[in-house]
Amino acid sequence: MKTAHLALPLLFALLQWSCGVVNTVAVNATTNIVDYGLGSVFEEPDLALAESAIPANLVLLEALYRSKEKDDEHLAFLLTQGYTGYTLGFVEDSDPERAKSLYARARDYGLRALKNKSAAFAKGLEGDAAAFRDGLASFDAADVPLVFWTANAWGNLVNVSIADPSVIVDLPKVNAMMAFVLAKDETYFYGGAHLYFGTILATIPKNLGGKPDSAKAHFDRCLALGDSALLLAHVYMAKSYCVQVQDRELFQRLLTTVDETPLEVLPEFRLVNAIAKRKAKLLAARADDLFF
Questions:
Q1: Burial class (CB in 10 A: 0-12, 13-18, 19+), 95
Q2: 3-class SS at 94?
């Protein structure tokens, strides 16, 4: 009888352990599937198909993230990257208010992961510019992807909230994060940090600190690092720099390049370039309003 009494708790504990192991294995396996799924989506050239597929992947990723006993950095990275890309490609141009919410969600996943990685960063996030830079210094080159995509989401949030002072005040922190990326790996995402600085420096008017010449240098460097394959660089150079300096000839040349470049120039990011082509068409249609 005593043996039976001991066996029941032992069996119960064993069943609990087994269920936990099975759950962990299932979650990890599903995470890998969704990870590969997002990779496949980035290779998808059909915008309508991608637009319908991405939200389901993001919802599943969020469910997996919440099922973990502690925050999962990789899932947070995928959510930051996924929400940023989806919002940039399918929301920002048609619904800026919704874009703000989604960019904020992407940023928050990234910031949470960065704070979990570094107590110095968590402290610096609440401090002044110097404290924030000190917090960033606790990271290294391996952290570039998470820092970049978090800053990308945050920067895009600032861009669509340009009239909101409570959001604009965060721009120096975004700049510091992108400066970190430049210092650690300027080649990441085809020179994406250069694309960011080119856009920012060309968008801000000269009398408010804009620097068109510096912006062009960043765009040129981005195009050189990516061998001109990331078509978004052409689009944002046309949209920001060309409009700022009123160079319609270069504007047209950049958009023509986007239109004529095949998606196969960057097979792993066909979707990004397909989005760039659509944005280029929308931008070209506004040319008469942008140049005077």
A1: middle
A2: coil
Q: Using an 8 Å Cβ cutoff, are 125 and 61 in contact?
A: no
| DSSP 8-state code for residue 266 | S
Q: What is the pLDDT of residues 2-55, one digit of tens each?
A: 444 444 443 333 333 333 433 444 445 455 655 655 667 788 899 999 999 899
Query: How many Å apart are CA 35 and CA 274, to the nearest integer?
Result: 21
Whether residue 170 contacts residue 130, with contact meaning beta carbons closer than 8 Å, is answered with no
CB 193 within 8 A of CB 148: yes
Question: What angle, 0 to 180 degrees and rounded to 10, lies between the N-to-C axes of helices 2-42 and 47-67?
Answer: 150
Token pair recorded at residue 226: 């990516």
What are the tens digits of pLDDT across the range 112-155? 999 999 999 999 999 988 999 999 999 999 999 999 999 999 99
Q: How far is it, in rounded angstroms, from Cα 68 to Cα 65?
A: 6
Give 248: exposed, middle or buried? Use CB within 10 Å, 0-12, 13-18, 19+.
Answer: middle
How many residues are recorded in the chain? 292
The Cα–Cα gap between 218 and 65 comes to 36
Specify whether the CB–CB gap between 110 and 91 falls below 8 A: no
Report which of 188, 194, 184 is spatially closest to residue 218, judged by C-alpha positions.
194
pLDDT band at 162 (very low <50, low <70, confident <90, very high): confident
Helix (H) or strand (E) holding 288: helix 287-290
Alpha-carbon dihedral angle through residues 80, 63, 105, 269, given to the nearest 10 degrees: 30
The amino acid sitting at 164 is: D
Report CA torsion sign: 81, 169, 90, 65. Answer: positive
Structure tokens given for 291: 């140049």
